[in-house]
Write a structure and sequence with these properties.
The complex is a heterotetramer of chains A (about 260), B (about 270), C (about 270) and D (about 325).
Chain A: E1 2-13, E2 20-31, E3 35-40, H1 46-53, E4 61-66, E5 69-70, H2 76-85, E6 86-89, H3 103-108, H4 124-134, H5 151-163, E7 169-173, H6 181-197, E8 201-206, H7 209-215, E9 218-223, E10 226-232, H8 233-238, H9 243-251
Parallel strand pairs in A: 3-8, 3-9, 6-7, 7-8
Antiparallel strand pairs in A: 1-2, 1-4, 4-5, 9-10
Chain B: H1 2-25, H2 57-92, H3 95-109, H4 113-124, H5 129-156, H6 159-166, H7 171-207, H8 219-226, H9 235-262
Helix pairs in contact in B: 1-2, 1-9, 2-3, 2-5, 2-7, 2-9, 3-5, 4-5, 5-7, 7-8, 7-9, 8-9
Chain D: H1 2-27, H2 32-37, H3 43-53, H4 59-71, H5 86-120, H6 125-139, H7 142-156, H8 172-206, H9 209-216, H10 221-258, H11 264-273, H12 277-305, H13 307-310, H14 312-316
Helix pairs in contact in D: 1-12, 5-6, 5-8, 5-10, 6-8, 7-8, 7-10, 8-10, 9-10, 10-12, 11-12
Classes of the chains: A alpha/beta (about 260), B mainly alpha (about 270), C alpha/beta (about 270), D mainly alpha (about 325).
Chain lengths: ~260, ~270, ~270, ~325
């Protein structure tokens, strides 16, 4: 069952100076249960693509479909459904949490969204406790502020917030790139467990091929707004067909003897 | 060092506020009754002596604190109540709306408080505390707009705003729950320094006779009237001068102290 | 011994806990030492201390000897003569490391004329030569461009050119390729390797990425919360790390060895944080 | 291209400013003629004045005539005497112009070195001292500074004339000596405000990565500030000067009354007290226009200071 789909997506930024075409007519579909990796260097358009999939960015052309129905344009109901079913985690732990809110309120906030049924607001407190357990933050009190937490802990709060409305699809945009190597392993293990236990469909964006290889079973390689290669992660790592992918794989520095 | 600035500012401001409260509750004598002895040295019933018309200096200084705080509070609230929302809107909007708002701010910037007060005083035929407050208040709006807008732009670029949109929240919720609380510290700092500016402006206006009318004592006017006695009775001009300087310094230091307290980016290891 | 650092301790302002304490290492002519550690381990403070670029609030104790001559406590005038001549430095973020209002060629030429005193003509020639050596395809155009007209990779090469133009004996590189794309990083590391070999310069390479450090250096020092927990030859340290934290770092650094989807080793499996 | 946009911008702001001035004077409740002649004027004289000033015509017409006279180069007549005031205004503008010019000079000469010093020594007591001194300077109202200087230098030490003004045409030394104390007063107050902006502009520069790069290639601190710092701080400082111009003119008006200088400030205050509305609104508009002109010059100067903007055209090829 295809959950998220991009049909002929195109995006041009018209900031000052000359316009930049970030996405060039992309088709992509994410089926339920997929663990899709989107790999690309800076400027490849991978973040722009997922922001459009999450309905946070208007495409210049083309459509984003959620459960078969297009979300942009007039029908608000479809967008509301996407807001319930798709949640996102961002890269920088320092800017993904409101510094003036306690983490308990941050995690609970999505429950009070207008797109959610009023009924789930009733037991928000229990839900927060449950979520904090889920993301291994049980040793942290819900009334602390983000600046009192480490990078890894902050990222786990962001994940708990994303899971609060029990979404079907979790989009992670460079979710571990800003973390220290030692903390990264924790968060990757957490994501692997959550995808399994919460039967989430994962869309994981990263510039780091080794992380994508570990987390995702299917992968897409992007360059200058175009998908240059697509397929099973193992197959692409074994023998990449596109030479850009080959160069990408060859450039990853390897530890000697490993 | 940072704490010292905050405490110094807070104590000075507290002194001015205290003087204002005391003047409401108790005055040594009525500040406006003319009488003898004139230019008297400090004595029992005139703790700070009297001025050239025999009016009690201490009472006039206390009441002066009242008018200075009054103008400051009203002017700063005009600036904040109008400037902050406009700043947030300008920060949040793209294209025409943002430029129109900021162009408007540039135009009001070109009208310093004094010019506005002159225009209002001339148009209404007489100067009054109202025209002074209105003029100073209007002139503080652009500064509030500019400060709030840049803070709002920073906040709106943060991921937690994107996450809130992703969870389905509209601009209203985002403005109230995310933008305002994170803009508040900047506005607080701006209000404090704007207060200092407002006091200075009010003093200048009343010195030129464009502020609080002569019937109510104000520090600026007191200095104007004491000008011709400055060689013989320096304290007539010096005391109100010190009061103004103390009040303005107090609010400026408070502003700096708050900025250091609330500004997390002060840690630095190089250069 | 070219550079010898001994018992180096740095505190900032009134904070009692030192940013780095008891740091000791040495780099001989042409030698390359890697400094590996996570954020907050003090590796950048160490590199800036060696360059004497810590701000006024820094209180430094211990010794930094450059060719037998003590640098800690020396005047800024003395230190400035070394910077850009005997020692060069490259930083992490190329996008903000060049003066936005000055052409790139002129910024490199300044370094030449500051130390070598060459006149305008000679400097221009030297600049074009060094820009070519760092692998920039069209040195003429790059020299005449402003920083915001160049990509991150190009800017980082201009910065390397500025650091290496007077052929320093020691290059200090603080995460020079962390902000670059993987493909650009591979090329820049290769060019850096070649330049250092040609000039025979020593290298102090700072990074959080063990694989990158392994590619550039033959000896590494592992830093954790302001102190060096282990030093040694690269193959020894990677082969059998002595300190549990090093073992944890090596295990977590290489996630390709774990089965995709399986549980990754975490640092707590090796090292219980005190 | 950029200059055209800025010019267009300037004209729009000027037009809107003139409407604001006109609106403030004409839209407020109360009859203008009554205000001008004062409460005890006879109804006939009020009616006559209304007729002469054409107050009964529709608002738009009066705005057009007002602007028409201004744009065609001469100034509306005084409502009271009916005499042309153009010459007066021009003469007095020159006086204030010089005061503001010298005042700005003093302010910049004070603020640049003090601000830079306070920034570079922000962690040392000498830096705090300078910042503290500026903090005090900001808190003392201009007229207090004026009075103090008059007492000390004017009356007691007799170094400079305590007040008054001498035309440069009559005696240059007299002209200059009369301007010393007022310019220092105006300069000191504005300078104190500028010090804080200069200091924060330099601190911003000191915290940039490219300043650290300059230090890492061997530039001494002050040399790095001179070669790389000045141009980048100039951008921020020019903006601040643009913003300060308004309060600079306001300061000049106060200083003129302290030193009894026959500048546009005192003239304006006279007209306010005898409620000569047309003259007041014209002078206010002129002052606002002057501030807008300075802001325009500030925006234009960005092109010279920051070469990247200038060569945008080159980039566009």
């Amino acid at each position: 069952m295809t959950l998220l789909e991009a049909r002929g997506l195109d995006k041009t930024y018209r900031r000052s100076g000359n316009p930049v075409r970030a996405i060039r007519c992309i088709d992509l579909s994410v089926a339920s249960g997929d663990r899709l990796g989107i790999v690309g260097e800076s400027g490849s358009g991978k973040s722009t693509l997922v922001r459009m999939l999450a309905g946070l960015l208007e495409p210049s052309f083309g459509q984003v479909l959620y459960r078969g129905n297009p979300i942009n344009g007039a029908n608000r109901e479809q967008l509301r459904e996407l807001r319930r079913g798709v949640q996102m985690v961002f890269q920088d732990p320092r800017s993904s949490l409101n510094p003036r809110m306690r983490i308990g309120d941050i995690i609970a906030e999505p429950l009070f969204s207008p797109v959610q049924p009023r009924s789930i607001r009733a037991h928000a407190v229990e839900r927060v406790a449950e979520l904090m357990d889920l993301v291994e933050l049980d040793d942290v009190a819900p009334n602390v502020y983000p600046h009192e937490l480490s990078g890894g802990q902050r990222q786990r709060v962001a994940i708990a917030r994303a899971l609060a409305p029990a979404p079907e699809v979790l989009i992670a945009d460079e979710a571990v790139s800003a973390l220290d190597v030692s903390v990264r392993a924790h968060v990757l293990n957490l994501i692997t467990d959550l995808v399994a236990t919460q039967n989430l469909t994962l869309v994981f964006v990263s510039h780091d091929l080794t992380v994508v290889r570990h987390l995702c079973d299917r992968m897409v390689v992007m360059r200058d707004g175009v998908i240059v290669e697509q397929g099973r992660t193992e197959a692409i790592h074994a023998n990449p067909t596109d030479d850009y992918t080959a160069r990408l794989l060859a450039s990853v520095p390897r530890l000697p003897g490993h | 060092m940072k704490r010292a600035v905050l405490w110094a500012g807070a104590t000075l401001v507290a002194l001015v506020v205290l003087a204002c409260l005391v003047s409401v509750a108790w005055l040594p004598t009525d500040p406006n009754t003319v009488g003898t002895p004139t230019l008297a040295p400090p004595s029992a019933d005139h703790p700070l002596g009297t001025d050239n018309l025999g009016r009690d200096l201490a009472a006039r200084l206390l009441v002066g604190a009242r008018s200075c705080l009054l103008v400051g509070v009203v002017a700063v609230s005009i600036g904040a109540v109008i400037g902050v929302p406009l700043g947030i809107i300008a920060g949040g909007s793209r294209g025409v709306a943002a430029t129109v708002l900021m162009r408007g701010a540039d135009i009001v910037y070109a009208f310093p408080a004094l010019l506005l007060a002159i225009l209002l005083a001339a148009a209404r035929g007489h100067a009054s505390t109202f025209t002074a407050m209105a003029a100073i208040g209007l002139s503080t709006i652009p500064a509030f707009m500019r400060v709030t807008r840049s803070a709002a732009v920073d906040v709106l670029a943060q991921d937690y705003v994107m996450a809130a949109r992703g969870a389905g929240f509209g601009l209203g919720h985002i403005a109230l729950r995310h933008v305002l609380p994170n803009v508040a510290p900047v506005v607080l700092v701006q209000s404090s320094s704007a207060f200092g500016v407002a006091i200075l402006a009010e003093a200048s206006l009343s010195y030129l006779g464009l502020g609080t009318p002569p019937t109510t004592p104000s520090w600026g006017r007191m200095i104007y009237e004491a000008q011709s006695f400055v060689y013989s009775d320096i304290q007539l001009a010096a005391l109100p001068g010190i009061c103004i300087a103390a009040a303005v310094l107090g609010f400026n230091l408070l502003g700096d102290g708050l900025r250091d307290l609330l500004d997390p980016t002060l840690r630095e290891i190089t250069r | 011994m070219m550079l010898k650092v001994d018992q180096l301790t740095v505190r900032f302002g009134r904070r009692t806990t030192p940013a780095i304490s008891g740091i000791g290492f040495h780099i001989d002519q042409g030698e390359r030492l890697g400094l590996i550690g996570e954020s907050g381990s003090g590796k950048s403070v160490t590199s800036l201390a060696v360059m004497g670029l810590l701000g006024d609030t820094a209180r430094i104790s211990g010794s930094i000897r450059w060719k037998g001559e003590e640098l800690v406590g020396r005047s800024d005038a003395h230190y400035s003569r070394l910077r850009g001549a005997a020692m060069g430095m490259v930083f992490q973020e190329p996008m903000t490391a060049l003066d936005p209002t000055m052409r790139c060629g002129r910024q490199v030429a300044e370094v030449v004329r500051l130390h070598a005193g060459a006149d305008r003509g000679q400097a221009r020639a030297k600049v074009l030569e060094i820009l070519a050596t760092v692998g920039l395809a069209d040195p003429e155009r790059i020299a005449d461009s402003y920083p915001d007209e160049l990509s991150g990779g190009q800017r980082q090469r201009v910065l390397i050119a500025m650091a290496m133009v007077n052929s320093p004996q020691l290059l200090i590189a603080d995460e020079p390729t962390t902000a670059l794309d993987v493909t650009v990083q591979a090329k820049v590391l290769e060019e850096l390797d070649r330049m250092l070999a040609n000039t025979g310069a020593g290298l102090l390479f700072i990074s959080h990425d063990l694989a990158v450090v392994a590619r550039m250096c033959e000896r590494i020092a592992v830093m954790y919360r302001g102190s060096i927990v282990e030093t040694g030859r690269l193959d020894q340290v990677l082969g059998n790390p002595q300190h549990p934290y090093t073992a944890g770092l090596i295990a977590t650094a290489d996630i390709t060895s774990a089965e995709p989807g399986s549980r990754l080793p975490v640092i707590q499996d090796f090292w219980r944080q005190s | 291209m950029r200059t055209l946009k800025l010019l267009g911008n300037f004209l729009i702001c000027l037009a809107v400013a003139s409407v604001v001035v006109f609106a403030v004077v004409n839209l407020l409740p109360g009859d203008i003629a009554g205000v001008i002649l004062g409460p005890n004027a006879s109804p006939e004289s009020v009616a006559a004045l209304r007729e002469r000033m054409g107050l009964d015509e529709p608002l738009v017409m009066r705005y057009v005539t007002w602007m028409g006279t201004l744009l065609s180069g001469h100034v509306p007549r005084s409502a009271l005497s009916g005499a042309p005031v153009g010459a007066d205004i021009a003469g007095r503008f020159a006086v204030t112009g010089w005061l503001v010019f010298f005042g700005m000079g003093v302010a910049i000469c004070l603020a640049l070195p003090m601000g830079a010093w306070a920034a570079l020594n922000r962690h040392r007591p000498s830096g705090w001292l300078v910042s503290g001194f500026a903090q005090f300077g900001m808190a003392i109202p201009a007229f207090m500074v004026g009075i103090c200087l008059t007492i000390i230098f004017g009356v007691k030490l007799r170094w400079f004339p305590a007040n008054g003004y001498v035309e440069a045409s009559t005696s240059v030394t007299g002209w200059l000596s009369h301007l010393v104390l007022p310019s220092i007063t105006l300069g000191a107050v504005q300078g104190a405000i500028l010090v804080r902006y200069v200091r924060s502009a330099f601190v911003d520069v000191l915290r940039t990565d490219w300043f650290r790069t300059a230090r890492s290639v061997g530039w001494r601190r002050w040399a790095a500030v001179w070669r790389h710092g000045l141009r980048n701080t100039a951008l921020q400082l020019v903006t601040v000067v643009g913003l300060q111009v308004g309060s600079l003119f306001a300061g000049a008006i106060v200083v003129e009354s302290v030193f009894a200088i026959r500048g546009i400030g005192t003239y304006l205050l006279q007209n306010v007290s005898n409620r000569d509305l047309p003259v007041v609104s014209t002078i206010v508009l002129m002052l606002v226009a002057l501030v807008l002109v300075v802001n325009l010059l500030v925006d234009l100067s960005y092109g010279f200071i920051d070469p990247r903007l200038r060569n945008r055209r080159r980039l566009g090829r």
